[in-house]
TrEMBL record:
<keyword id="KW-0813">Transport</keyword>
<keyword id="KW-0547">Nucleotide-binding</keyword>
<protein>
    <submittedName>
        <fullName>ABC transporter ATP-binding protein</fullName>
    </submittedName>
</protein>
<dbReference type="InterPro" id="IPR003439">
    <property type="entry name" value="ABC_transporter-like_ATP-bd"/>
</dbReference>
<dbReference type="Pfam" id="PF00005">
    <property type="entry name" value="ABC_tran"/>
</dbReference>
<dbReference type="GO" id="GO:0005524">
    <property type="term" value="F:ATP binding"/>
</dbReference>
<dbReference type="InterPro" id="IPR017871">
    <property type="entry name" value="ABC_transporter-like_CS"/>
</dbReference>
<dbReference type="InterPro" id="IPR032823">
    <property type="entry name" value="BCA_ABC_TP_C"/>
</dbReference>
<dbReference type="Pfam" id="PF12399">
    <property type="entry name" value="BCA_ABC_TP_C"/>
</dbReference>
<keyword id="KW-0067">ATP-binding</keyword>
<dbReference type="InterPro" id="IPR003593">
    <property type="entry name" value="AAA+_ATPase"/>
</dbReference>
<dbReference type="InterPro" id="IPR027417">
    <property type="entry name" value="P-loop_NTPase"/>
</dbReference>
<feature type="domain" description="ABC transporter">
    <location>
        <begin position="2"/>
        <end position="250"/>
    </location>
</feature>
<dbReference type="InterPro" id="IPR051120">
    <property type="entry name" value="ABC_AA/LPS_Transport"/>
</dbReference>
Length: 258
């Protein structure tokens, strides 16, 4: 579904992404791990159009999407969430979801004057869709709560719900576990697995919690210093000498036997 070829992103003399190449298979849940500063989030940002690449190429289902802005990628079904959730805090949880789909008829002055019936029908459909999403995510009891009052984990579920309002094809999740308690983290994991299995969503997940990665991700890709070091199952990644060296600063082969 996504193919990244020799991607580079430089900030002055700093090479945040330095020749990364990888492929994301449709229908997969791919984990992206690596030490802090490995270039994971920058890679996400380049793929999702937040930053333009210095060089390299990104394709989606064979179409060149290199450097396209986020709103164009949104309409192609590519969405990206952030480590810190971005909600409309003064609006309810349900209203946050209803805001997501673009091209709503109530957005134009002409339609507010002459298309009220169509706007009302559209709002009823969006309301039903939002309620279905909230029930799927098991947070329907929070539908009338102000989004700003939610816990960190509940906000992450709300962000996941936003992707469901537009039937995303591929979703890039950046550290969904940050600031989330273990119970809610497993709820998020279960929701991701259900979306993958029941609705064929493709996910790419940045996460430092290896239990979370192990529960939902296969394959796992490890980055370090802007490059892709290894790809495989989590067990294979954990046994990889280059990965161990990237995380610990020295490989097992250099350690003296106890």
């Amino acid at each position: 579904m996504i193919k990244v070829e020799n991607l580079h992103k430089h900030f002055g003399g700093f090479h945040a992404v330095d020749g990364a190449s990888l492929e994301i298979a449709p229908g997969s849940i791919t984990g992206l791990i690596g030490p802090n500063g490995a270039g994971k989030t920058t890679l996400f940002n380049v793929i999702a159009g937040v930053h333009s690449p210095t060089s390299g190429r990104v394709t989606m289902a064979g179409e060149d999407i290199t450097g396209l802005p986020p709103h164009e990628l949104f309409h192609k079904g590519l969405l990206r969430t952030f480590q810190i959730a971005h909600e409309f805090s003064s609006m309810t949880v349900r209203e946050n979801l209803m805001m997501v789909p673009g091209g709503q008829h109530g957005e134009t002055l002409w339609n507010t004057w002459f298309g009220r019936k169509r706007i009302a029908e559209e709002e009823r459909a969006l309301l039903a869709k939002a309620d279905e999403v909230l029930e799927f995510l098991t947070i329907d009891h929070l539908k009338d709560e102000k989004a700003g009052n939610l816990s960190g984990g509940q906000k992450k579920l709300l962000e996941l719900g936003r992707t469901m309002m537009v039937d995303a094809k591929i979703v890039f999740l950046d550290e969904v576990g940050a600031g989330v308690n273990r119970t809610l983290l497993m709820t998020i994991a279960d929701a991701i697995l259900r979306l993958n299995r029941e609705r064929n969503y493709t996910f790419v997940v940045i996460e430092h919690d290896m239990d979370f990665i192990g529960k939902i991700c296969d394959p796992v890709i490890c980055m370090a210093e802007g490059k892709v070091l290894a790809e495989g199952t989590l067990a294979e990644i954990k046994a990889n000498e280059q990965v161990i060296e990237a995380y610990l600063g020295t490989g097992l082969k250099n350690k003296e036997p106890a």
